[in-house]
Amino acid sequence: MFTVSHRTIRNAGIVALWLVAIAVILVTLASAIPSSQWWFRIWDFPRLFVMTIGGLVLIGLFFCRFRFRWPLAAALAVAIAYQAGHIYPYTILSPVEAEMVEVDAATREGHCFTAFSLNVLQDNRDYRRSIDAIEEADADLLLLMETDSNWLNAVQPTLARYPHRFEAPLSNRYGMALATRLDVETAEILNLAEPRTPSVHAVMRTPAGRRFRLAALHPRPPHPGQDTEERDAEIAIAAMMTRDAGLPAFTLGDFNDVGWSETSQLFRRIGRYVDPRIGRGFYATFPASLPGFRWPLDHVFFTEEFAIRSLSVGDPVGSDHLPVHTEVCLIPSTGRANNRPEQAEADDEDDLQETLRAYHEDEVVERRTGPD
């Protein structure tokens, strides 16, 4: 009978620890490289997972004896610290960036509005669950993403309750529909950086008549054959539009990017945005089927003139994303008193121009060679 010795098992365990530790270190190094190549940028997303695996391996190293154990443990600890540094602001250990506020009924009626956003998952045909969630939320501002013609037909009775609707049905997973009962001054559907990847940009008014700028975004994610020049450029251009508009701004959508990425952080600083998740938690929305390792892909940002009353992630509705609910109030004095937006950095403008330069260079290459 074939038997396996304890020594063999021990050696196999050591090899496994080595391999996983090296993988965590290499993945962390890849995520630190300032590149728009998809095989680097995808490692922005699973930082919690990588940190958790790294922590378990580090514990395991303390119970094994082999050559170079301590140098490996030291390198792994640095990798874990690097991952933790990125996600730390999105934990309850960090100071909050936006304090929750309470307002009286009259103030709420005139200056506050609710928003509900959901990536419905184009191939999800369980329309009823999403419709029920939308109708239960009864938000003043509704954003649906990945809406093809079938989805728009299914939700049309619900959308018809809103006086203002902006629809761009597409079969490529980047369709969008925005509906609102707020007054709309101007609105347009734009492809900021990539064809057939619409976003909605509008100037709206609160019930009391205060004007603000709205942006609803859903750029494409990094994946094999899709680097991030276009995604990063769309996010950067949206931030520039906010900065240049001279109005309070509210932005929401599935950015296909996590809040702790350099792209999202640059967006916040350029657009002078506040992230209400900082100091409160991930508010992770994707993938809906993996509660322990979800990523915060669906975002709500606003400038400091807004004050936030509530923020929550909804229950699963059959999509691979979870819905996001929020309520904000456009009361500049209250907002400024309760928000602490991150200050711009000296090299932000250089980083912004580099993002746009990389995008334009990629566009030139694609025009010459054709898309992959």
Question: Could you provide a short overview of the structure?
Answer:
The protein has 372 residues and is of the alpha+beta class. Helices cover 40% and strands 20% of the residues.
Summarize the structure in words.
With 372 residues, the chain is of the alpha+beta class. The chain has two domains: 6-90; 105-355, Endonuclease/exonuclease/phosphatase (Deoxyribonuclease I, Chain A), CATH 3.60.10.10. Helix content is 40%, strand content 20%. It is built from eleven helices and twelve strands. It has helices at residues 6-32, 38-41, 47-61, 69-87, 105-111, 127-137, 149-159, 229-245, 262-271, 332-338, 348-369; strands spanning 112-119, 141-145, 164-168, 176-180, 183-190, 199-205, 211-217, 249-254, 273-274, 298-303, 306-313, 324-330. The strands form two sheets. Strands 3-4-2-1-12-11 form a six-stranded mixed β-sheet. A six-stranded mixed β-sheet has the order 5-6-7-8-10-9. Helix 6 runs parallel beside helix 7 and helix 8 packs across helix 11 (348-369). The chain is globular, with a radius of gyration of 23 Å. The N and C termini lie far apart (55 Å). The mean pLDDT is 92.
Q: Topology, please?
A:
Layout: H1 6-32, H2 38-41, H3 47-61, H4 69-87, H5 105-111, E1 112-119, H6 127-137, E2 141-145, H7 149-159, E3 164-168, E4 176-180, E5 183-190, E6 199-205, E7 211-217, H8 229-245, E8 249-254, H9 262-271, E9 273-274, E10 298-303, E11 306-313, E12 324-330, H10 332-338, H11 348-369
Parallel strand pairs: 1-2, 7-8
Antiparallel strand pairs: 1-12, 2-4, 3-4, 5-6, 6-7, 8-10, 9-10, 11-12
Helix pairs in contact: 1-3, 1-4, 3-4, 6-7, 8-9, 8-11
